[in-house]
Prior knowledge:
By secondary structure, chain A is mainly α. Chain A has helices at about 1-10, 20-45, 50-75, 75-110, 140-170, 175-185, 190-205, 210-235, 240-245, 250-260, 265-280, 285-290, 305-315, 320-350.
Amino acid sequence: MSSQTLDKHSQVKPLKPWSITPRELLPDFIGVLLAVVATLLTLDFTPMRGKLGFIGALFFYSMIATASVNAIKRDAKAAKNSISSLFIYVAAGIVVAPVASIVYTIISRGLAGFGLGIFKTDMGNAVPDSPLNEGGLLHALVGTIETVLFATIICVPLAILTALYLTEIRGRFSGLVRFLVQAMSGVPSIIAGLFIYAIYLISFKGKYSGFAGSLALSILMLPTVARVAEEVLKLIPDDLREAGLALGATQWRTVSKIVIPAARSGLVTAVILGVARVAGETAPILLTIGGNDRMNWNLFSGQMSSLPFYVWRQYLYGGELATSRAWTGIFVLMIIVMFFFTLTRLLSRKGGK
Amino acid sequence: MSTVTSKPKYEIPTPREITTKPRRSDLIFSAIVTGGGFTSLLILGLITFFLGMRGWSAIKESGLGFITGAQWVAADLEAGTPSNYGIGAMLFGTFVIALIGLAVAAPLSIGVALFLTYYAPDFLKRPLTLVIDIMAAIPSIVYGLWGYFVLMPHAIYWAKLIHRYFSWIPIFEMKDPVFIRSPFVAGLVLSIMIIPIMTAITREVFAQTPLDRVQAAYALGATKWSMIKAVVFPYGRSGMIGGAMLGLGRAMGETVAVYTVLNISYRFNYEVLFSAGGSVASMIVAKFGEASAVEIDALMGAGFVLFLATLLVNLLANLIVNLGKKGR
């Protein structure tokens, strides 16, 4: 008996008076149809042509269609609302377009000269017009790895100390330091290169070298690492710090044995974000490492190359083959950048759980 | 016979002195950390000092003309002409392309930020955020080459259309129809490069709009757009302005991407579609290779001016964003 009533009830569909019925969608559908038809007619009967003409006309007619449909269904306010919605959707679409185009270009043009051979040789015996199977970018890859690695070694201690000052010491100048770190993240990359040129190559009579490039990169890396590290250290609850102090530990021991281990994965993320930020920097590299077509393993003496520098030089050579090499360089560079990018995402997702 | 010895097995420790005086390890720790905390101050100070010192001779020689001049001539010993270094045209060009970039990027970034906070269905939010993050991660040289090889053919076509229909506006007119490597193209590339930071800041501020106000607006019968106009924009004003200024700062300092898509020319050119423009940062790279020692000093001076300008824009932008946050 009771089960019967239950069955009966379960067959009754719950009413959803707010849901959209097909009948209500009809005017919108007619609007879309009219917009497309009007666009096609316009393209046929006016001098507007091509993709741009199609998109422009479609946008224009969609605007009119959605506005008039909403004006008929409701009022002028709804019409305005629908126009602004259309603009916002289109903005989102426009922003995606260049990224899609860039990714497509990198893959399609980069793969042309890509092969395992490029990781085996340098450009020492190749000229700009050499066929693609001669010459490689091993020297550039090694240069990038060495300069970025050494920049990380210089920058990370300083950045972590800055973050610790902001979260642990919380001194009188915290506001100022935070402000300066923010300001530093806006310093143009060329200025970092110019600065290292002025201080290292002119004032200290240094020579072009990978080391000078590392110095310039570490300046650009510092604000990124310091800011992310600060955010990470802020997330460590104060209870942990107080527990450490209550057990009689000094602040040094609390920080080194409790706070930093607790924040370890976040700090690693901060460092990797910094690496991803500077791996593709070009302008400071152009002014500091000097460039080289041959392999140079030594970071501290002799001119070096690096992937951005390699791409830059090949681009300036011009010509079909050199340009193809430039795109291959970009392809390899983007693989490195995207590797670190993905790594930070995976790490931060794991930390969030 | 067992005797209870009064001697205790362990010595009772003397009570520890209770003090608020930090231990030596803590003093060292706090000294090192405080020292490290001032790295950014040290670096910014050193940049100001060294670039200023190097550039001072050139700036002093040209005087105010260094900022306003439009010539870049090295001294010619045989002809006996003095050097004349002025970055006025380059500064002007920098602002022109940065403003074009801003004009394109600002509406798009605000649109995307609104889309992500109020319009996007849940399944679109994550991919779109990912796309914006990737945009921020792409190195500027990639934007440069893509801008030159892929975007510029399209941009030239757009520029021709603009020129045909809007040449009655002074900035869109031109005497010689040369569209390649114009400030317009450079501005478009810059706009793509500054969208991520503007979107990030704007979105963060939009997301902080108090929910009760949003719902109050809906309860009064507002449409989504009137809610945004009445609640989100007033609350997010500081974020939008600050984000736009941060974008402006980035655009002003962009070097490699601008160099590839801009024809650098030493004159004040306001015809944005014409193939002549300037950018301080790109000029430094362009001139650096074959510069004499004196010219390098002048380039340092140019870098010094650019550094101060971007620092000023960034400080103002951060101030506006932070004040807006505090105002809540």
